[in-house]
Design brief:
single chain; mainly alpha; globular; about 425 residues; 17 helices
């Protein structure tokens, strides 16, 4: 077990795709890379070396902070959901094998961060290679060392994992604030690399069983019948599906708890926007809806769809779209209305607030359409649905932000094309 565990699964997954799907994925990735490069390359050409160096290091510090939090969460919670990790947790593995298995279990949750970092910094890498590549290489080396350090800590004392992440975030924040040129960051990297090498060679064997959940049934909570609405739905296909969708949301206790947490998070975000920058609330609203709807692909919070609902029920795509709108649209409207009402007392002009919230709400409708499309397209493979959903949302956001009119038209064409694929599958 070596690094091949990280390469073989995605490579075999890529080989299993038809040629048309490969071409579609490469086209979307090309647009995601080309649009930021087209926007950033002229700006970087006019920037001095000192200013560019400072922004590169600040961006690297932000990436490392997000990477540290994501790595800690992935190492602590992701291995319990990986079949290979659960099978080999009790096996007599050496350090390299344990490292490879854990990396395989967490790679699916972490690979998007370095890809997004490279997309955003790609223009600088081509415009100023001698200035940018040393920062990029050091950043990725540090990210690898941080992941290994968190793995070694979690394999011995999981209770110290999040404390270590908190200390690491404080140090990175201090570097970004007081030493943005990265001079003082290099000794820290040297100390971190030395500590990781010593701990990897001399520390006791990591215990992979510490990374598994303590109770096998802790994460899966059965449905709780909280209440049944008194309204009698029409005895039609769309009425039955709508009633099933609403009751599934109301009775499934993990989703009820998740919705409460998101409500508290949205209230905190509105309060922070009112204190700091209320004009950025439309962007925060779009990102919030994106994250909120992404949990529909997690079977821990949303019950999995039975294949008969997709292949056997006499339903039309218009029925499914109406059900998804009826289930999700009220929450989106409430969030948009509260954001608009917070922007007005924060001295944001009414025209600017209305235009910002309207644009953000339109983008949230695109995100909701992508949710409906990929829940149907990959109803039996929620991981693939989540990956396609996030990739499409990133593609549409970059395209619409770079070219508002043409990008919106292309996003509509893309969603229409995916909708047509679902139509062909269901009615062929």
């Amino acid at each position: 077990m070596t690094w091949r565990l990280l390469i073989r699964p995605p490579w075999r997954w890529w080989q299993s795709w038809p040629l048309r799907h490969k071409a579609e994925a490469l086209f979307i990735l090309l647009i995601i890379v080309a649009v930021p490069f087209d926007r950033l390359h002229p700006v970087i050409g006019r920037t001095t070396d000192d200013v560019l160096r400072a922004w590169l290091w600040r961006g690297s510090f932000i990436f490392l902070i997000i990477w540290s939090v994501a790595s800690a969460l992935a190492i602590r919670f992701a291995p319990g959901q990986n079949t290979l990790f659960r099978l080999l947790a009790d096996a007599p593995l050496n350090r390299r094998e344990a490292l490879s298995v854990t990396a395989h279990a967490t790679a699916a949750y972490l690979w998007t961060l370095p890809v997004l970092y490279l997309v955003l910094i790609g223009a600088a890498c081509l415009a100023r290679p001698l200035l940018t590549w040393p920062v990029v290489v050091l950043t990725f080396s540090t990210a690898t060392a941080v992941w290994c350090a968190l793995f070694l800590i979690a394999g011995r004392r999981p209770a110290l994992l999040f404390l270590s992440v908190a200390l690491l975030i404080l140090m990175l924040t201090a570097y970004a604030r007081f030493a943005p040129d990265g001079i003082l960051f290099i000794p820290f990297c040297a100390v971190l690399f030395t500590w990781v090498v010593i701990m990897y060679r001399r520390a006791p064997q990591p215990d992979l069983r510490l990374l598994l959940p303590e109770k096998a049934g802790k994460k899966i909570v059965g449905p709780r019948y909280r209440f049944t609405p008194s309204r009698v739905f029409p005895a039609t296909a769309i009425g039955a599906l709508y009633r099933k969708e609403r009751l599934a949301r109301q009775r499934f206790l993990p989703f009820v708890r998740l919705r409460r947490r998101f409500a508290l998070a949205w209230a905190a975000l509105l309060f922070a926007g009112w204190l700091l920058r209320a004009d950025l609330l439309p962007i925060a609203y779009t990102a919030f809806i994106w994250v909120y709807l992404a949990f529909r692909f997690n079977d821990r919070y949303t019950p999995a769809e039975h294949p008969l609902w997709i292949t056997g029920a006499p339903l039309r795509l218009s029925h499914w779209a109406a059900v998804v709108l009826g289930a999700e649209l009220p929450d989106m409207i409430i969030a948009a209305f509260t954001a608009f009402m917070v922007m007005l007392p924060a001295a944001v002009p009414m025209e600017q607030a209305a235009a910002g919230i309207s644009s953000a709400f339109l983008m949230s409708l695109f995100i909701l359409a992508a949710l409906m499309i990929f829940r149907l397209m990959f109803f039996d493979r929620p991981r693939w649905a989540a990956r396609a959903f996030h990739l499409t949302v990133i593609f549409m956001a970059i395209l619409i932000n770079g070219y508002p009119l043409v990008g919106t038209f292309i996003a509509l064409l893309l969603l229409g094309y995916f909708h047509y694929q679902n139509y062909r599958y269901l009615y062929s």
